[in-house]
Every structure is written in C-alpha cells, then in structure tokens.
Known about the structure:
Elements: H1 3-24, H2 28-41, H3 46-58, H4 62-76, H5 83-99, H6 103-124
Helix pairs in contact: 1-2, 1-3, 2-3, 3-4, 3-5, 4-5, 5-6
Amino acid sequence: MSKAETGEAERIERERKTGLAAYKNKDFKAAIRHLEKARKVSPDDISILVALGGAYLHIKDYQKSVDACEKVVRLCEGRPEGNTPAAEALATLSHAYFKLGDAPRALKCYRRSLAKYHGDIFSKLDKSKLPSKS
C-alpha cells in the first residue's frame, strides 16, 4: 500500500470512528456527515450502515433510514455472525416504516428482528441448563 493510500485509509477510519462517536453522543447530524464520508469508500461496512440508519431515523429522514437498514439486512443474509446487526437494522426499519405509515411492514420487520435477536441469544445458551419438556 502506498503512502497516499495509507493516508486515505487512515482518514476514512478517522471519519468512521468520529461518526460512530457522534452517534453515541446523539449528535446525529455530525454522525451522518462523518459516516457518509466513510461510506463513500466502504459502502458495505455494516457498522457504518447500522449507525446511518439509526441517525437518519432520529432526524426523521425515514426513507434514508430504510435504505441504509435494508442494505444491512441484505448484507447479513445467510451469515450467522450477521444476526445481531440485522436484528438491530430490522428494529430500526420497523420504526421507520411505522413513521412512514406502513404499519403492516413495520410489524413484519419487528417480528423478524425479534426472531433474529432471540435466535442469536438461544444459540448461545447451554442447552443442558434448559428445563426439560417432560
């Protein structure tokens, strides 16, 4: 990697970290500004997309929230390690669809989110410690 490429990669990583920090501090407009810069270089970075979906939801740009979250769900499909970010994206999608007036779609996303989230939790449980069904 050349010095210029290394510098660019470091700048993008700084944008990503700054955007995620702004999101955690509830500065959603700043988060979007930084995360969109990072997204231009890493368009399939799931952490960036999940945060963008949430930030857009908070500033009431519901369609952009939907777009980011649907991409997360597509990227996580068929990947077991993708259950948690997909569940988070589906929960955000359910809120966005509800705000857009699409209650049936919101409910569908909410149910899918619960299934992914609980499926991930249950797979981590020690099955021997669960009560028997007899």
